[in-house]
Each structure stands twice: as structure tokens, then as C-alpha cells.
Design a protein that fits this description.
14 helices; Chitinase A, domain 3; four-stranded antiparallel beta sheet; Triger factor/SurA peptide-binding fold
Length: 407
């Protein structure tokens, strides 16, 4: 069976899609799902499943295929209503770019897909739907976004020279420090800082920590050192295993980290990170209503763009989609983002207010061994990031208004 390199992450910009099949003589070609009156057949679903298998998509392949086809039917409908279409040359160019990511020519990729039972039209529609949606987004929103020279300057700013390739295994204790109780919180933090026994540190984390890791005794998984905020990296590198940092003040909290283990990689120039994350203010900390709402949202929001729909009844100012260099993110949020995976969410108590934080994307601005990107390249990347936020909100509104039926 033909195997490709892991392409899925680099291909996400080409969102999924297919066209209508020509045959309707059997149930295989009868619509199984309709989106605003446009049918999706069993044949299309099976073809998309095969394509997702080749691309090694995670999850239930049928669910992935159906959701992708529904999404593309809606996006194609939007493009039609806006009068946007693609010519043959644009589609062929897109297919060539896709194939080049696998170090292949279009003809060779089509032959390889045919060996897996995937029709050329399936691949063509998959690519063209993504290109068409990209055209829709740029047509609708590009004029609304201004990338300033200061934005580009911040995105190109180097952050650190420490520890590229180094992996660290940490435990954390985040102690709340509400107004009037700062001294008590600092006293607890100093006790934690003096500990050299991981078991005792874990027990204290379970008792006093406000972090979601408290149930695990504050233990975090292995993470790249560069995921940590720049100000925290030197303190971690100065520790021996089973030593803890000095107390680190955060907004309305104090943090202490214990190094459990370290795996040294090559000490080469570190790369700054650009983090995209969502912050949704839910309400007063300790409220039973807020706690239930946090569970509801966490259950329904699998991706950052889902928050637009889940939080549609909230005032607009309570949901922020933020793209910023790691060094400019508030320290308490940056500490949480350091150990989070993309699309993972956590609930944080910030100054007595519960805030749900979700990591949307983590991107290295300067790759190892690479030259700094040009200002034009950085400007284009920032533009694409902001376009994504506009597009997600727009798509969510359209999806909620769509008529989707299953046979």
C-alpha cells in the first residue's frame, strides 16, 4: 500500500471538499447527507475516507470524511453566493503545490492515489475546495485587516539564546494570592521552593495548588524548554533534578516549579514562538453556575473556532482571539500555555474571575538552522493568522444557519 510522509499538518490550509458525482443509478450514488439542498453521496464519503486514510488523518475516518464534506458543501455554497469561482489553471497549480509537498509531480501523485482506489476527481475536488475557500476569505476580509510595521517588528523579535532541543520534566504549584493574602501565599511558596523531595512537593500541590495539574500532584509531561516563557528558562536550566525555583510572582498568584528531570539537546540558538490562543471570561470564580458553564463549553469546543458558536450569547468583549509573541503574553497565561497541546483548554482563576484559555496554534518564528524570514513573509503570516479568526467566526455563523439533513 502506498504510504506518504506525514502531510496532514501542512495540508490543513487546503480545507476539504468534493464535487457532485455524475452517477445516480444505485444507492451508492444517492445522497446520504444534504447541505442547503446540495447532496453528499455514499460514493463521495467512501472516497473521502480513503483519502483521509492515505493522509493518516486521526480519529474515526467516516466521521472525519462526513464532517469535511459537510464543511466543504457549505463553503462552496458561500462561494457561489459571492460569485467567486476558480479557473482550471488555478486548480492545476494548487494540485501541483499539493503534490510537491510529497516530492511528487501531479501525474505521479494521481497514479499513486489510483493504486489506493481514489479517483482523480476526488483529489481535484479536495484541492479546489480549499483554494476556493481561501479566495472567499481574502475577498471578504482582507480589506479589514491592517498589519502595522510595529506588528512585524514584534513578530521578528528574537527572544532567547538558551536550550534549543532541551526537554524538561517539571512539577508545578500555583498558589492563589488574592488581595490581602499575598503574604500568606508567598510563605507557602517559600516552603515549596525549599523542598527537595518530589513526593512532598506533589502532596503540597494537591493541597494548595490552583492549577489543573493539582490532581496529578502538579506533575507535567515532558515539554520542550522553548515552550516555557523566556523569563522562566534560565531559572529552570540552573536547577538540578529535585530542586525547585524561587517563588515567581504571577498576577494574583505565586508559582514554584520543581525540575524532576532534564534531557539536554543541542545548545544552539533558540527560536521565538508565536502563540495563538483564545481567552473566554466566564464569570466569578467559585460560582456553581460558572463551573457548570465551563464544563459545558469544554465538552462542546474541540477547536478554538468552536468557541465562536459556543460563546455566541456572551458579550463580544469576553471572548478574545489573541496572536502574540510568547514574550508578550501575560506570565500566568504563558505558564499554562507552555504545557498545553493545540486545541487543549484550561480553566484559570484570574483575579477572582474564571477564564477559559485554549491554545489554538504554536508556531516557531525562526526555525533551527534557518535564516530569519523577510518582513514581507512575516507580514503575510500575520495577515493569514488574522484572516483565520475572521473566517472562523464567519463560517460558524453560516454553519448555524445551514439546513443539514442525514438520510
Amino acid at each position: 500500500m502506498m504510504r506518504f510522509p506525514s502531510l496532514l499538518a501542512s495540508l490543513l490550509a487546503l480545507t476539504l471538499g468534493t464535487g457532485q458525482p455524475a452517477l445516480a443509478q444505485s444507492s451508492q450514488f444517492a445522497p446520504q447527507i444534504t447541505v442547503n439542498g446540495q447532496g453528499i453521496t455514499g460514493f463521495e464519503i467512501s472516497q473521502r475516507m480513503e483519502l483521509m486514510r492515505v493522509l493518516r488523518a486521526p480519529g474515526d475516518l467516516r466521521e472525519v470524511a462526513e464532517n469535511g464534506l459537510i464543511e466543504d458543501r457549505l463553503r462552496l455554497d458561500i462561494a457561489k453566493r459571492m460569485g467567486i469561482s476558480l479557473n482550471t489553471d488555478a486548480i492545476n497549480e494548487g494540485m501541483g503545490e499539493f503534490a510537491a509537498r510529497a516530492n511528487m509531480k501531479t501525474e505521479d501523485l494521481l497514479k499513486a492515489l489510483a493504486q489506493e482506489g481514489i479517483e482523480p476527481q476526488t483529489f481535484r475536488d479536495f484541492v479546489s475546495a480549499g483554494l476556493l475557500w481561501r479566495a472567499v476569505v481574502r475577498e471578504k476580509f482582507r480589506g479589514q485587516i491592517n498589519i502595522s510595521e510595529a506588528d512585524v517588528d514584534r513578530a521578528m523579535m528574537p527572544e532567547s539564546e538558551l536550550g534549543k532541543g532541551t526537554q524538561v520534566l517539571l512539577s508545578e504549584i500555583i498558589i492563589p494570592a488574592p488581595v490581602g493574602q499575598e503574604a500568606d501565599a508567598m510563605a507557602l511558596a517559600r516552603r515549596a521552593s525549599a523542598m527537595t523531595d518530589p513526593g512532598a512537593f506533589a502532596a503540597m500541590a494537591r493541597d494548595v495548588s490552583a492549577s489543573q495539574s493539582k490532581g496529578r500532584g502538579g506533575r507535567l509531561d515532558w515539554m520542550p524548554l522553548e515552550n516555557l516563557p523566556p523569563a522562566l528558562r534560565p531559572a529552570i536550566l540552573s536547577l538540578a533534578p529535585n530542586q525547585a525555583t524561587q517563588p515567581m510572582p504571577l498576577p494574583n498568584a505565586v508559582a514554584v516549579f520543581m525540575l524532576r528531570d532534564i534531557n539536554d539537546g543541542a545548545k544552539v540558538k533558540d527560536a521565538p514562538q508565536m502563540l495563538d490562543y483564545a481567552a473566554l471570561v466566564l464569570g466569578p470564580a467559585g460560582s456553581e453556575t460558572v463551573a457548570k458553564e465551563a464544563v459545558r463549553i469544554a465538552d462542546r469546543a474541540d477547536r478554538c473556532k468552536d468557541l465562536y458558536g459556543v460563546a455566541k450569547d456572551y458579550p463580544a468583549e469576553q471572548l478574545e482571539m489573541i496572536s502574540a509573541p510568547q514574550s508578550e503574553i501575560a506570565q500566568d497565561i504563558a505558564v499554562q500555555l507552555a504545557s498545553m497541546d493545540v486545541n487543549e483548554s484550561r480553566l484559570m482563576n484570574r483575579a477572582g474571575t474564571e477564564t477559559l484559555v485554549m491554545l489554538c496554534n504554536r508556531q516557531t518564528i525562526l526555525g533551527e538552522g534557518a535564516e530569519a524570514p523577510s518582513r514581507d513573509a512575516v507580514r503575510e503570516r500575520l495577515l493569514n493568522q488574522r484572516l483565520t479568526g475572521f473566517a472562523d467566526r464567519f463560517y460558524t455563523d453560516q454553519f448555524e444557519a445551514a439546513v443539514i439533513t442525514r438520510q
